[in-house]
Amino acid sequence: MNKRFLRHLQLILAALDLLSINAVFFTSQFLFRGQLSIDSYVQYTYFGFFLNLAWFLVTVLWGIYHEKYILSFEQFTKRSVHAFMYFFLLVIFYLYFFHQFIISQKFIIVVLASIPISLLTNRFLYLAISAYFKSKEYLINKVIVIGYNTLSKKLVSYLEEDGVNKEIIGFCEEYENVHELSNYPILSSIGDALNICKEYGVTEIYSTIAPEHNPNIYKLIEMADQDCIRFRIVPDITFFVNRQVHIDYLKEMPVISLRNEPLEDLGNRIRKRLFDVVVSSLVIIFILSWLIPVISILILLESRGPIFFRQPRNGKDNKIFNCLKFRSMYVNEKADEQQATKGDARITRIGRFLRRTSLDEFPQFLNVLQGDMSIVGPRPHMLKHTDDYSRKINQYMIRHFLKPGITGWAQIKGFRGETQTVYHMQKRVEHDLWYMENWSLMLDLKIMFLTVYNTVKGEENAF
After folding, report:
1. Residue 373 near residue 315, CB atoms below 8 Å
2. Does 300 reside within a domain?
């Protein structure tokens, strides 16, 4: 991928969006200048600063300028619409909870109505900007591929799909090895590849033939370095494993892993643990300290039994721990085997409220502080369900490489609550594995934000 083109596009679009938001704000401020007093000017300034901060946070957490979205006009625009919705909610939250009543309602309406229009205009400018950069010759990387085989054909298809400003010139292969028509021309034999590069102004060579199979490749590498042409070797690892893998290095020794796991890195694990400890401590001090007594009284007023429901569940590395919840059911013998269903007679009246608002999960912040759970991660399952589904779903146990979480990627995507079919559990596992392979602190913050949003909005599967 042409990183220069991508960075140009990302920086210009991000700058245009911020410029548009500030242009809307200052233009509106100019139009309403007659209503501004010296006292209110400070509040308007804070509001303008918050608009920039809120948009920055939303774009970072929602990742609208990420390369996998920014290269598609449709995905970029759709992602931007979602980002604006969260931006809008943050602004309303700020105005209400920080009592910014001195700011004119008309001013707020004009600003919040104009910003999406300006952002949408930028999305159409995106098409012109993209076309402009694609027309610039200095941003185009011309490519030849050494070898004409199954791997090289797959490589070319990937370059066509993902190659921003990559122009594929053709293949270099011994003519006697070519037995079919190719989408791109066979330009020369392998030994003449450097002359072809000079003739067409090629800046990158991809070789699907390993130097061990053709010693002349070593000579080509040296000559390419001398001519400032980047030489890349694409190994055929299907000989070892026929699936997508992740390659690390132990000094000079390549090590093939079946998946990328950011939390295998000690530094990432420390950052995640510090995040868990800080957030769970704040929740315990400022929320659970008064919530537990209140909920305890309400539970005891309706039914006899313990305040907390302690259930053995499978944690990290399949180790069993006691998961805490506020008791939401009458005491029953099936609690450790049967999931709650819609209209379940075992659920108490206060229990329905607790489950619908997810308040029953709050004691799990104690599990987080103890180190048995994380705030974000795969949801822990009952022992019986782990035993049952591990026999039916191939990759089910992989989710136990991580600490279980109070919330997770699967839950915000709608796969929470009762799993009526193997399909629902399969989709939950797929989302859990995606989270494991794509973890970041920003992703954790995004999941927490969406969890709160979904709880306020109400969820169909929360019962």
Report:
1. yes
2. yes
